[in-house]
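Aim 2 progress update. The chain analyzed this quarter is reproduced below.
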Amino acid sequence: MLMCAAGAVVLAGVILAAVQYRRGLHTYYDDGQSIQVHQDEAKPRTILWQPPVALDADINTNADEYEPRLSADGSVLMFVRGKAGENADIYACRRVFGVAPGWSSPEPLTAINSQDDELGPTLSGDGQLLYFYSNRSGGAGGHDIWIAHRDGEQWGQPVNAGPAINSPFNEYGVAINSSGDRLCFASNRPRSNETAAEAAPTWSATLRENGQRHDYDLYVSDFANGVPAVATALARLNT
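Predicted structure tokens:
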């Protein structure tokens, strides 16, 4: 189920405007809306969270909805509907303003979705590129990272991110920096001291794997003139 807080998806926190007041013998922090925390529990130097509120029934259905992603300007929400391994697809909806603010009814990205899984949608900062991972045909094996370019109001044919990023193993969890020239992701490819047999490319409808389990590591690839450099492991973070 997808949740939101005060209209912002993925548990958007509210940094306190230092509103402190007393009630009887007790002191509270309050954001003027839905937060009210006793001073013994509050940590005003960090963030207090508004109570999560489920999005409407058009978005939250009896199916599985997960991996929500907002566009940089907060106007577009993308998410995955359906179980991985059972033709999971990417859906999108737009923020609606006016008398009844909320979100439009989500629509599947028919230009992107296939008979295989499309997962982890991530938009570039300018909204012109869509990154996702999929086990569709035409990849290097396992789940690969794919990229689609926006053409006006439509999405073009997805293109495999190529051998600098993808491997015969699984790549997923795409993250793009704000300038769009660095891509981070996770992969279960063999480490430098391992053989391919020690990193089995298995996938079983969730992040749990069948057979021999292999840890996922973080990788990064920098882009120069739109061409990705060979991905390297983030050694300081991987354990």
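Residues 5-18, 203-208 have pLDDT under 50 and may be disordered. DSSP finds no helices and 21 strands in the chain. These observations will guide the mutagenesis experiments scheduled for the next reporting period.
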